[in-house]
Write a structure and sequence with these properties.
Order of helices and strands: HHEHEHEEHHHHHHHHHHHHHH
Structural class: mainly alpha
Number of helices: 18
Strand order of the largest sheet: 2-1-3-4
Helix content: 55-70%
Number of domains: 2
Oligomer: single chain
Number of strands: 4
Distance between the termini: 35 Å
Shape: elongated
Largest sheet: 4 strands, mixed
Length: about 450
Amino acid sequence: MNKILLVIQREYLTRVRKKSFWVLTLLVPVLMAALYAIPIYFALKPMERSVVLVADESGLFGGLDLDDTLRGDSRLVSTENVTYRYVANLDYALRQMDGDAEVDAILYVRSRASEAIPTDACLYYKSDMPTQTMRFDVDKQLQRILRNRLLQAHGISDDEYALISNTKINLRTEDLETGREAFLDIKTGLGFVLAFLIYIVIFMFGSQVMRGVVEEKTNRIVEVIVCSVKPFQLMMGKVIGIALVGLTQFLMWVVLTGVALTGIQMSNSELFRQATEKHEVTELATKGGEAVAQMDQAAQFADVPQMVEGLAAINFKAILPAFLFYFVFGYLLYATLFAAAGAMCDNDTDTQLFSLPLTIPLLLTLLLMPVMINAPSGTLSQVLSIIPFTSPVAMMLRIPFGVPLGQLYWSMALLLLTFPLCTWFAARIYRGSILRYGIKNRLFKKKSK
């Protein structure tokens, strides 16, 4: 045991003292803070006004000779980002675009004798592509005018239309046993985050174990180490030591990212106050375009109070211990396999060939996430959450929805039983390969007569 602790200490201190460790540890929080702050800055930064010439042959969307009493509801109205100018026809608009550098695009609505209502409009541009904000504003105003004309034609008032469009049934899902609402959307998001985090940890730090074994094997340092340490002790010490390095780095990322975000918010509090106001959160990093429309639509179904209520209803006391269990033993299971694979490799190129096959079970689970989300208690979800090689990801996806204790215990028990078996299997490969640099490994040797 003391020798394993010495190997753990060596692996931990060797990697923590590297410049690359500290560069990555300090760089990631800065990048995460920038990833958060830069989109907000550009989203709230005032945009240049775009000029659009409107050539409407149909007359449905306004014109130069439109009655002033109808201009407000039947014409495209200039906004803080887009200025609309009506022209007589398309030819005049084309000449204006050639002679006026401020004109960004031409909106042309064609009139067809076979159509009482035009169903096609075109936004022409010459050099610079129209911004998403411009395209979204044009589309929104065209739909508004068309809706108003149809309402007037059918004698429907704005209040009646608002009543029709805003009336809906709020469908809830509730558990009969607990009497609590399910909040499926919130649990889905939480399950995705937990499952993906488990996958990232296993893949990233498992690969470090493989590269560490290959590095020592190619440098022939391991031949000196195993003179006083058994191969199994060396393998376990390396696995646990790198796990502690990863845990240290992960905790530092969390702390430093929080400090960086707090510093950015305090240095420009007015900017972030605007970003957190109602109806502006959905426009961050997009500010216009179809993404805003989709996010606004989603915001109607999942408002902030409902999200807070849904998060409060989740049993985090049961989720956190399960997350730590699958976090630790999922990593240990795959780290031993990565160590064995690294022992069979002679260079970094070979490690890339082994990385993909080892992570295929986890990748398959990620690809099947939509199916599992559709039926968290289905047969596929239950099978993947019990198989030890897929359970770390699959079970974390299911746990926010609630998993029967019998299935949870079976999954944990199988993972605990599989880990020693994989450790024994990996130790056989590790012991047979670690001192046989450049020689093909034989897992099970025949006894000499």
